[in-house]
Specification:
Blueprint lengths: L1 E10 L2 E11 L12 H17 L14 H8 L14 H7 L1
Antiparallel strand pairs: 1-2
């Protein structure tokens, strides 16, 4: 189990995370983080140290670059496609009848 209580992460005057508390049951957990390159490497180091100090198994911690399109496609994978705005749906046709 992973447990975090009252986590706050600041970068200078900017608060990136404020008072985060959560519990994650045992098993495989994936996390997707978005930040600037320097912040991402620093945060990866912090996550690695926290896992090592708490004897948590860390299977992978690989920063990678992704475009906005890559992120959109990953977040929407498996979602049904919405009809195009200019296409009439059956309900639209029935409503006009």
């Amino acid at each position: 189990m992973i447990e975090i209580e009252h986590l706050t992460k600041r970068y200078g005057a900017v608060t990136a995370v404020s008072d985060l508390s959560l519990q994650i049951d045992s098993g495989r957990t994936s996390v997707l983080l978005h930040a600037g390159t320097e912040d991402l490497y620093r945060l990866c180091g912090d996550i690695f140290l926290a896992c090592a100090e708490n004897n948590a198994v860390l299977l992978e911690l690989t920063p990678r670059r992704a475009s906005l399109e890559d992120v959109f496609l990953e977040l929407n994978a498996g979602q049904p496609e919405a009809p195009a705005a200019d296409e009439d749906t059956d309900k639209d046709k029935e409503a006009r009848s």
